[in-house]
TrEMBL record:
Residues 11-67 form the Complex 1 LYR protein domain. It is found in: Mitochondrion inner membrane. This is NADH dehydrogenase [ubiquinone] 1 beta subcomplex subunit 9. The lineage of its organism: Eukaryota, Haptista, Haptophyta, Pavlovophyceae, Pavlovales. CDD domains: Complex1_LYR_NDUFB9_LYRM3. The keyword Chaperone does not apply. It comes from Diacronema lutheri (Unicellular marine alga).
Length: 127
């Protein structure tokens, strides 16, 4: 059974993940992103063996400040995420729009029947 990761480990892992996501928001080309990700990993590995708590805190705080500074104004979003192109395209988990939205208003029912239903009924072959 393994021990739970420390708060510091979780902080650094989260910082690395956010740094990768920020890099991905700025870099369009996949090859360039991979090169940038390798450089980012080297920066994290360079500080891997630091043991002084105040120095670790300073390094993490500086890295978090850099993330805020380099935050992309329009970050990449997956198509189904909030604010993206497919978000809420099919509300109600694919069940379509609610009945009250799809119902024909009472004042238009007669016009709808005359325009769309009666012509079809008149053109039906005799049974």
């Amino acid at each position: 059974m393994t021990a739970a990761p420390s708060a510091h480990t979780l902080r650094v892992c989260g910082l690395y993940r956010r740094a990768l996501k920020t890099t991905f928001n700025w870099v369009v080309d996949r090859e360039t992103f991979i090169a940038e990700a390798i450089d980012l990993r080297k920066q994290f590995e360079a500080n891997r063996h630091v043991r002084s708590a105040p120095l670790i805190e300073k390094i993490c705080s500086d890295a978090e400040a850099d993330l805020v500074k380099f935050k992309h104004p329009d970050p990449y979003k997956l198509p189904w995420q909030f604010g993206s192109s497919k978000y809420m395209r099919f509300p109600g988990d694919g069940m379509g729009l609610p009945k009250e939205v799809c119902d024909i208003p009472e004042h238009l029912v007669d016009q709808y029947v005359e325009l769309y239903y009666l012509p079809k009924v008149k053109n039906l072959p005799p049974a």
